[in-house]
């Protein structure tokens, strides 16, 4: 990069020298009529110049009304060329009366604007890769001869991906107003070639068929060769190297020397040069070490070479690995045998010694920092469930010594010294190890005085109080570096791209004091000439303009430029947003800021397959299971999203899910940043949900809602929502005559609000933080509702890191609903229909129950009825089991769904078969396997006091006759053992 900049400036310098000499000679030949005459006018041809008129007047040494001087003319040419805005400049002088008219005849430079590619090319390469291959960078100077290397870059990437018969047609569009050169490449890719038998050269040592098979360039079983692309070629070479490594030849060299294309068959034969190299046998003697550990810890496998330094590094790594497993006295040596060109053997002789456990870790001598503060920065650990032997090695000890020292140095303790001693057989017990850290803090150095100079064009009154090295504060180079960054960011934000910072120190008036001096070199200030937006096809410019946070006349601030880029990305309709300063190396004061956007695809379609395996309440084929039974539920999802509707950055989406339990479709229209308020998003939703076979009833819901989401702060937001829905019930597992009002269709109009506070470090798998939600809703006849009730649901979850790898998590959920203004003979228990009542139990509330099986039950059939109040509390201790991917969970759940708020009880025992208002507990163990979409969860729960009840069995007719035939009713209970298999933590 530096050589490119230097060559560019050298080219400018030679051009200036040549042209200035030519102009000087021309004017020298006319000394007598021009030299010393007064300049009556200064003109430019063409009149519209690429440099702003105000800047141009200040830039030129020659002035209207001044005496003409050849030195001023030369200086004017040099300054104009230094702006980088001109490709050619000539000067003409014309006598006018007693004076002279000076005329600058210019030809402006061009700069890279939008670079686009039109190609019917299947990925790879994609459009972004093709655009990048041109090497044309936004805002950089452009000449037509730059098309040749750009076309060469496209040729290389196309042929690399098998397009040998392509054709490229470049086209340039010039914008004289902004000096932008928009470059467009029309590409006819032609057909993609296929592989054919590769040509193998060199010392193979393996069978050619084995090598070719490793590439996977030929289709498996069905035969035939695959189509060529660069990724497939490189993966094939990597697989050949892996095949040699599997034969202990990890020094093997595999080079692609060329790709021979046959125009007739449209096939390519890769030419490979392979040097198998010697066999390298690495063994661990004296201790059992897996081959995977050897390959991970000994760098000769990664570097593909063998030398003493790499073998010695492997020696240290193996020792640290053994020490981390409790063999703190482990000794490792290595021996190398064999010639460089034949089979070599490398033996690592290991004496693991006695296995230890770190049982104590203490810090002494620390007064300024607490031991707990220092422990947070240490890697050595005492033994625990997560680390059975603790964590210790010489490398960890050295790192912890340095970490503690760094903390002190950053706070002014320049002479701090930290040492660690290891005590074996701690307190007389063999194998127990104690690590003692001793800190010698020394004196704390303070800043006695801070002098800041160089603030000329900016007012530093708001900045200086925020500096870390103010008077009386600890002195450290770390704080000075933080001050430097703060000062330079302040200047960069205000348009000083070349600002620099110097500092000095000298002893203060008292011991352990320092006088600091900061000097700022501001450099020239730059401003925004204008903002150029390129690449808008569908998106309305007015939508984008509202997101731009930099305008003509503002200081040229990279921070505000980046803020604009972030805001454009947040619109959610751009695949890429590139930004640049036009002519960044030019010395002009005012510059264009250029944004080039690539709009994302308008439509996206996604499908998914999944399944749920758990105990599920109810069954269409077995009506005698009111307590739930094991079931496997396959699921299919289909989603379609339309981005940038009408060019307004709005989104229309349809999401659906189909399973044996549920058919669901949701149509959503989202208007983000409503009326240009970044913190408000407006959405409209239409919902169809047909749910059956997992509760006491099946339900069909039609719902429409409008919602305004407001971001109050980074962790907090509020949702304002109005919804109107009609819910009907069917397939009752109980006699509808027993609960006629509960089973009737219901129309509910509800106004609600939700407050969300999320301070978790990771919403998918939190290790620390807090998560709170409060939802309040009012259903009233004023909103078209058939029933009047108030509904509230609150949740509080907290996460504590009890050590570096263990987490204590807990969650409390509380809800209640209250009907009001009841009409006729309705009682509160009858007023709330089935679909609006609380249901609970299962993997997300209380694992003592199958899904939605908690709470009151029909006294005749035993099927759940839901309730008007709920209270659940869950506690989990999460810890690692094996490695970083597999973890374990011990949990305790307690809670229930209750008839009403006054029925909430913490009783442990069920009074009788008609009592369900008591606290049900479960304990259990779970396994978590980390995946990219969240932890895979398997929980096994044991209910300590699961409820018993009367339930029916038999056919549907038997179920309906249950009330009159007691023989059909039996004493049933919720199975004590429950299981949940899903993705994601329980909370």
Walk me through the topology.
Blueprint: H1 2-28, H2 31-34, E1 38-45, H3 53-59, H4 70-82, E2 86-96, E3 99-108, E4 110-119, H5 127-133, E5 141-142, H6 147-160, E6 167-175, E7 180-188, E8 194-195, E9 199-203, H7 208-215, H8 230-246, E10 253-262, E11 267-275, E12 280-285, H9 291-297, H10 300-303, H11 308-324, E13 331-337, E14 344-351, E15 357-364, H12 371-375, H13 394-409, E16 417-424, E17 432-440, E18 446-453, H14 477-493, E19 500-507, E20 513-521, E21 527-534, H15 541-545, H16 558-570, E22 574-581, E23 590-599, E24 603-616, E25 629-645, E26 650-659, E27 662-671, E28 680-691, E29 698-711, E30 716-730, E31 746-758, E32 769-779, E33 789-801, E34 807-819, H17 828-831, E35 869-882, E36 886-898, E37 920-929, E38 936-943, E39 948-952, H18 956-960, E40 969-973, E41 977-983
Parallel strand pairs: 1-3, 4-7, 8-11, 9-11, 12-14, 15-17, 18-20, 21-23
Antiparallel strand pairs: 2-3, 4-5, 6-7, 10-11, 13-14, 16-17, 19-20, 22-23, 24-25, 24-41, 25-26, 26-27, 27-28, 28-29, 29-30, 30-31, 31-32, 32-33, 33-34, 34-35, 35-36, 36-37, 37-38, 38-41, 39-40
CATH class descriptor of the largest domain: Mainly Beta
CATH T-level topology of the largest domain: Porin
Q: Give unreliable regions as ranges.
A: 1-32, 618-624, 737-742
CATH architecture descriptor of the largest domain:
Beta Barrel
Silhouette = globular
Number of distinct helices: 18
Class per helix and strand makeup:
alpha+beta
Per DSSP E runs of 2 or more residues, the count of β-strands stands at 41
Strand order of the largest sheet: 24-25-26-27-28-29-30-31-32-33-34-35-36-37-38-41
The description of the largest β-sheet is:
16 strands, antiparallel, barrel
Radius of gyration: 38 Å
What's the helical proportion of residues?
Answer: 10-25%
CA-CA gap between termini: 50 Å
């Amino acid at each position: 990069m530096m050589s490119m900049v230097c060559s560019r400036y050298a080219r400018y310098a030679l051009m200036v020298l040549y042209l200035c000499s030519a102009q000087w000679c021309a004017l020298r030949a006319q000394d007598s009529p021009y030299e010393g005459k007064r300049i009556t006018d200064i003109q430019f041809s063409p009149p519209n110049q690429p440099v702003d008129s105000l800047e141009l007047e200040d830039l030129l040494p020659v002035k209207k009304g001044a005496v003409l001087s050849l030195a001023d003319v030369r200086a004017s040419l040099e300054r104009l060329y230094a702006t980088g805005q001109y490709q050619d400049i000539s000067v003409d002088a014309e006598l006018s009366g007693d004076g002279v008219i000076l005329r600058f005849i210019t030809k402006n430079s061009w700069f890279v604007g939008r670079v686009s590619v039109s190609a019917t090319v299947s990925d790879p390469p994609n459009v972004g890769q093709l655009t990048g291959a041109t090497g044309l960078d936004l805002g950089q100077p452009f000449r037509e001869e730059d098309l040749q290397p750009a076309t060469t870059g496209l040729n290389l990437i196309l042929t690399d991906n098998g397009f040998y018969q392509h054709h490229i047609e470049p086209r340039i569009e010039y914008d004289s107003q902004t000096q932008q050169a928009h470059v467009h490449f029309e590409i006819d890719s032609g057909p993609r070639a296929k592989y054919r038998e590769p040509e193998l050269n060199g010392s193979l040592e393996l069978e050619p068929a084995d090598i070719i098979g490793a590439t996977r360039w030929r289709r498996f079983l069905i035969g035939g060769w695959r189509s060529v692309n660069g990724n497939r070629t490189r993966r094939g070479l990597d697989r050949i190297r892996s095949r040699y490594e599997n034969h202990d030849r990890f020094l093997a060299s595999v080079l692609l020397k060329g790709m021979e294309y046959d125009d007739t068959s449209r096939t390519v034969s890769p030419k490979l040069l392979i040097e198998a190299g010697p066999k390298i046998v690495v063994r661990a003697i004296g201790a059992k070490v897996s081959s995977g550990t050897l390959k991970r810890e000994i760098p000769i496998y990664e570097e593909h070479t063998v030398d003493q330094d790499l073998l010695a590094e492997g020696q240290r790594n193996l020792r640290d690995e053994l020490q981390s497993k409790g063999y703190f006295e482990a000794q490792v040596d290595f021996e190398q045998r064999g010639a460089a060109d034949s089979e070599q053997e490398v033996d690592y002789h290991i004496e693991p010694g006695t296995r230890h456990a770190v049982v104590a870790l203490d810090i002494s001598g620390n007064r300024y920092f607490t031991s707990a503060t220092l422990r947070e920065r240490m890697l050595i650990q005492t033994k625990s469930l997560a680390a059975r032997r603790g964590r210790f090695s010489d490398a960890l000890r050295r790192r912890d010594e340095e970490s503690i020292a760094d903390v002190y140095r950053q706070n002014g303790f320049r002479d701090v010294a930290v040492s660690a001693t290891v005590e074996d057989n701690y307190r007389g017990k063999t194998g127990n190890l104690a690590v003692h850290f001793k800190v010698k803090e020394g004196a704390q150095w303070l800043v006695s005085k801070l002098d800041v100079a160089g603030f000329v064009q900016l007012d530093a009154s708001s900045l200086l109080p925020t500096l870390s090295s103010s008077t009386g504060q600890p002195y450290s180079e770390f704080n000075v570096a933080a001050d430097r960054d703060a000062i330079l960011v302040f200047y960069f934000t205000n348009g000083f791209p070349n600002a620099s910072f110097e500092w000095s120190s000298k002893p203060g008036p008292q011991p352990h004091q320092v006088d600091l001096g900061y000097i700022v070199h501001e450099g020239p200030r730059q401003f925004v000439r204008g903002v150029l937006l390129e690449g808008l096809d569908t998106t309305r410019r007015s939508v984008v303009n509202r997101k731009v946070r930099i305008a003509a006349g503002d200081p040229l601030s990279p921070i505000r430029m980046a803020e604009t880029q972030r805001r454009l990305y947040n619109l959610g309709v751009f695949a890429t947003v590139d930004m640049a300063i036009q002519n960044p190396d030019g010395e002009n004061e005012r510059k264009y800021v250029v944004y080039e956007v690539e709009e994302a695809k308008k439509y996206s379609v996604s499908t998914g397959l999944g399944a749920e395996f758990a105990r599920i309440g109810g069954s269409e084929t077995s009506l005698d299971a009111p307590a739930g039974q094991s079931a496997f539920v396959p699921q299919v999802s289909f989603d379609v999203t339309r981005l940038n509707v009408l060019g307004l950055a709005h989104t229309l989406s349809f999401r659906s899910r189909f399973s044996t339990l549920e058919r669901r479709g949701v149509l959503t229209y989202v208007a983000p940043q409503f009326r240009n308020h970044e913190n408000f998003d407006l959405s409209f939703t239409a919902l169809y949900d047909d749910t059956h076979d997992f509760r006491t009833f099946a339900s069909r819901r039609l719902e429409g809602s409008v919602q305004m989401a407001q971001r109050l702060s980074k962790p907090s937001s509020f949702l304002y929502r109005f919804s109107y829905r009609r819910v009907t019930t069917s397939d009752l597992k109980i006699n509808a005559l027993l609960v006629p009002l509960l089973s009737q269709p219901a129309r509910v109009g509800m106004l609600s609000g939700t407050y969300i506070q999320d301070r978790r470090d990771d919403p998918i798998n939190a290790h620390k933080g807090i998560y709170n939600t409060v939802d309040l809703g009012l259903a009233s006849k004023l909103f078209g509702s058939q029933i009047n009730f108030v509904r509230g649901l609150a949740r509080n979850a907290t996460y504590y890191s009890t050590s570096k790898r263990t987490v204590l998590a807990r969650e409390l959920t509380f809800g209640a609903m209250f009907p009001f203004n009841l009409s006729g003979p309705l009682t509160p228990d009858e007023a709330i229909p089935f679909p609006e009542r609380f249901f609970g139990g299962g993997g997300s509330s209380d694992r003592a129950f199958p899904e939605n099986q908690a709470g009151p039950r029909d006294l005749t059939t035993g099927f759940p009825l839901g309730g008007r109040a709920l209270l659940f509390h869950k506690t989990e201790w999460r810890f690692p089991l094996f490695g970083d991917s597999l973890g374990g969970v011990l949990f305790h759940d307690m809670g229930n769904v209750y008839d009403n708020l006054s029925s909430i009880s913490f009783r442990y025992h069920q009074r009788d078969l008609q009592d369900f208002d008591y606290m049900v507990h479960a304990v259990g163990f779970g396994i978590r396997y980390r995946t990219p979409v969240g932890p895979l969860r398997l929980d096994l729960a044991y209910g300590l006091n699961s409820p018993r009840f009367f339930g029916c069995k038999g056919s549907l007719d038997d179920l309906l006759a249950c009330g009159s035939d007691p023989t059909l009713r039996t004493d049933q209970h919720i199975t004590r053992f429950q299981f949940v298999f899903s993705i994601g933590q329980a909370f």
